[in-house]
Design a protein that fits this description.
380 residues; alpha/beta
């Protein structure tokens, strides 16, 4: 009789403690993400979000002013110099990763990934990335399919958001508990689609593959760790609705989509996003074991229908969606990488709740066993 009571008591204790800790975890995370002022605008702890969508839009315009950013052209070369100059304003160090691509019986193309590093004294690295080249053909257009596209959304939008994010995160540098890489990847958009190559024989995401093949040249893998890779690709069209790409890390997805929703952007970051598999720059980083997310849209059946057409131009960019993307990534960094704050997007295999619960269960079982043995000895 006594034995049964103790077992019941023990399991009830465990259950109550489990509920308390689960609630504590959820309340703690939600409350730290959703403070709002009397006008209802969302603030992240005391830090207002500073991302300026007009600046991001202007960066898109500047890139398009260079012309088509197709590898091998002077417009491409000039734009690479501009990206270098822009990112260098905000970061501690800028590195040019020059590489060449040569396919069978063809001339060699000079390409360049551009890496801006902010807060280099930290050993944990977050990569924010976008491709900066634009496609050499418009295979999905009805006209002039063999001519290059402006790539306002497909290419320039991600770059514009990243340069503005660099400005904003530089202002936050003294509170930043990670190193941020702003990575501008070349040669993403020249692969094969609709019966046409961008450049003959090229694969998608050649720049990302070249970068990951040589990634040890860019950091000290003995001492530093790359915690995640966040790709922005086509983030500036109207009706923005991000998909959940199949390689996306689940914790990273929950953290970023959760923040987007808390900021009021549930259309762009839906509760039940479309699930798709897309070949993009994140694939190369996933292949070397880095948790990735591809923030991109359904460019096959979604509402933004200008993918790989001449209409991927400034008139089909929606500045509001640059803000939605930029603010959400700013919020992600300020939430999970603020100095002195131990919020983690990646709970890993053992969550805090799991560890605390295990210790409690262990202690209770030990007490119960000792008690049980003592009672037994006294009886005998
Ligand atoms: C994604 C965005 N891609 C190019 N720009 C890769 C891709 C395009 C993959 C078409 C499959 C089809
Ligand atoms: Zn593309």
């Amino acid at each position: 009789m006594i034995k049964i009571n103790k077992v019941v008591l023990l399991s009830r204790c465990v259950l109550v403690l489990f509920l308390i800790f689960s609630l504590y975890d959820n309340l703690f995370i939600v409350s730290s993400l959703t403070p709002s002022d009397s006008n209802g605008s969302v603030y992240l702890q005391e830090n207002a979000l500073l991302f300026n969508e007009t600046a991001a839009y202007n960066h898109i315009e500047s890139q398009l002013d260079f012309g088509f950013r197709v590898p091998g052209t002077s417009d491409h070369f000039n734009c690479s110099k501009w990206i270098n100059d822009q990112i260098s304003i905000h970061v501690d160090e800028t590195i040019q990763h020059n590489f060449t691509i040569q396919k069978e019986n063809q001339s060699s193309y000079s390409c360049q990934n551009i890496l801006g590093k902010l807060n280099t004294e930290k050993d944990n690295i977050v990569i924010l990335a976008s491709h900066w080249d634009s496609r050499n053909v418009a295979e999905k257009d009805y006209f002039n399919q063999s001519l290059p596209i402006p790539g306002a959304n497909d290419g320039a939008s991600g770059v514009g958001v990243l340069i503005e994010l660099a400005r904003v995160l530089k202002l936050y540098q003294e509170y930043l508990d990670c190193e941020v890489w702003f990575l501008f990847l070349d040669a993403e958009d020249q692969g094969y689609s609709g019966g046409m190559y961008g450049l003959e024989g090229w694969n998608w995401a050649e720049g990302a593959m070249n970068f990951t093949e040589n990634i040890d040249d860019f950091y000290n893998s003995q001492q530093e760790e790359i915690e995640c890779f966040i790709l922005l690709d086509m983030v500036g069209g109207f009706d923005l609705e991000f998909i959940q790409e199949s390689r996306t890390n689940n914790d990273l997805h929950k953290a970023i989509f959760g923040l987007g929703q808390n900021l009021g952007y549930s259309v762009a970051f839906p509760e039940n996003p479309k699930k798709m598999s897309i070949t993009d720059d994140h694939v190369a980083f996933d292949e070397i074991g880095i948790p990735v997310i591809d923030l991109t849209i359904d460019f096959i059946a979604g509402n933004w229908t200008f993918h790989h057409t001449h209409s991927d131009n400034l008139s089909n960019i929606d500045t509001k969606n640059l803000k939605i993307t930029g603010q959400t990534i700013e919020a992600f960094i300020k939430t999970y990488y603020a100095e002195g704050d131990n919020l983690q997007w990646n709970e890993g295999f053992f969550s805090n709740t799991f560890i605390v619960m295990s210790v409690i269960v262990f202690v209770l079982v030990a007490v119960f066993t000792v008690n049980f043995l003592r009672t037994k000895r006294r009886k005998s």
